[in-house]
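Researcher: I'd like a candidate sequence for this fold, 418 residues long. If you have to choose between options at a position, lean toward the conservative one.
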């Protein structure tokens, strides 16, 4: 057993080694509302690791606000809060208005219209990868597929796809020396303190998005950029340049990173659980339900953060106004009080009310229907084409306690007879 006093979920080494699970288990059992110390200038945060505690915070937006930051643990001053504000960092009426601006594009009915395109895209992605026999599953399959879907929704050329991937890597990997331009923890990052993720890549994303907006403003096009450039949210407050930039950047990151990592983790779990892979090959009708287990186990986003707006109490622990409260989705997805044998892959698990997309509350992931469709079609297309897949090298993890990312995943594939 690890002593809870020695556990720090601010320690990125714990996540880079790919093994925060023991720490989550110990905290969930012995310190479900755990105080994590941080280096100055930050002041520490509360970590929640039990499923029901997390749900209670996500649903109580009056007590636990998103307005002071959600995607990182950094304590923001007034200038940073204003400069970085996106749909994720808003609550109440403005949040609903920003969300509804795009909500219609991501309903189950709307995304179902992409199915034919997705099936053709998946087949061509797998054709190219499988022709090599040995390949990096992340680069050739998991990263390539969702970014091409996003490019279609944005109506940008395929030649721009790798720029979108690169920008996402550099921003989400802001604590990983392999990906970041400037480490978020470094003194040099102060130059970029007003940018999302403290990343200069954000400036490139803003410039790219603004050029597209200028081209499409006043047009009758229906792509996501044209919607952002030409429509006013229902609260009557037009999108400012910052609003547009933040929304566009959110689409670039969320439309790529999370689905990509879910697909990579899911394939790895299937390799490690050949009985489950065989079951899905024998009974492909189970794949839509298996997607929920893929999402639970992958937990592509480790956490989201809230800030207490008033003194409160969680599970008997006093929370002070201004305290950061971090909801560890990945820990909630392995809570044995909710999921029997939570570390076992069970593609028939029912019920499976995981929190990979959140669990209730107004900030539930807007793109969850599209992500589910992408993952389902990927495995409905992939699994009949193989007799097996083998991991052939090390699988390095992203140095991050925000995104549960796989950087590379070398594999060899054994193809089924045609």
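Model: Candidate sequence:
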């Amino acid at each position: 057993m690890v002593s809870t006093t020695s556990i720090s979920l601010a320690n990125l080494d714990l996540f880079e080694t790919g093994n925060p699970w023991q720490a989550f288990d110990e905290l969930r059992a012995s310190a479900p509302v755990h105080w994590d110390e941080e280096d100055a200038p930050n002041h520490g945060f509360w970590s929640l690791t039990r499923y029901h505690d997390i749900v209670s915070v996500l649903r109580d937006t009056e007590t636990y606000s998103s307005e002071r930051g959600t995607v990182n643990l950094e304590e923001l001053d007034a200038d940073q809060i204003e400069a970085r504000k996106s749909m994720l960092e808003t609550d109440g009426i403005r949040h609903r208005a920003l969300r509804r601006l795009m909500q219609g594009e991501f309903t189950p009915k709307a995304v179902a219209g992409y199915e034919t395109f997705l099936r053709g895209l998946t087949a061509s992605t797998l054709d190219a990868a499988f022709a090599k026999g040995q390949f990096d599953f992340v680069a050739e399959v998991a990263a390539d597929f969702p970014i091409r879907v996003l490019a279609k929704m944005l109506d940008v050329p395929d030649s721009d796809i790798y720029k979108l991937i690169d920008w996402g890597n550099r921003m989400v990997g802001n604590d990983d020396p392999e990906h970041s331009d400037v480490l978020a923890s470094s003194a040099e990052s102060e130059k970029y303190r007003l940018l999302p993720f403290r990343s200069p890549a954000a400036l490139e994303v803003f410039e790219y998005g603004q050029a597209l907006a200028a081209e499409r403003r006043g047009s009758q096009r229906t792509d996501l950029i044209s919607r952002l450039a030409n429509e006013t949210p229902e609260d009557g407050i037009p999108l400012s340049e910052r609003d547009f930039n933040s929304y566009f950047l959110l689409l670039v990151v969320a439309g790529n990173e999370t689905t990509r990592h879910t697909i990579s983790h899911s394939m790895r779990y299937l390799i490690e659980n050949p009985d489950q892979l065989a079951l899905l090959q024998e009974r492909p009708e189970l794949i839509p339900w298996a997607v929920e287990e893929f999402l639970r186990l992958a937990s592509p986003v480790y956490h989201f953060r809230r800030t207490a707006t008033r003194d409160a109490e969680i599970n008997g622990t006093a929370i002070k106004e201004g305290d950061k409260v971090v909801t560890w989705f990945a820990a909630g997805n392995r809570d044995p009080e909710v999921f029997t044998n939570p570390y076992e892959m069970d593609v028939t698990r029912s019920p499976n009310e995981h929190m990979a997309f959140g669990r209730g509350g107004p900030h539930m992931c807007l793109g969850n229907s599209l992500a589910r469709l992408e993952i389902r079609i990927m495995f409905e297309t992939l699994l009949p084409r193989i007799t097996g897949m083998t991991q052939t090298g090390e699988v390095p993890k992203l140095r991050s306690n925000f995104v549960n990312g796989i950087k590379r995943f070398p594999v060899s594939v054994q193809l089924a007879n045609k």
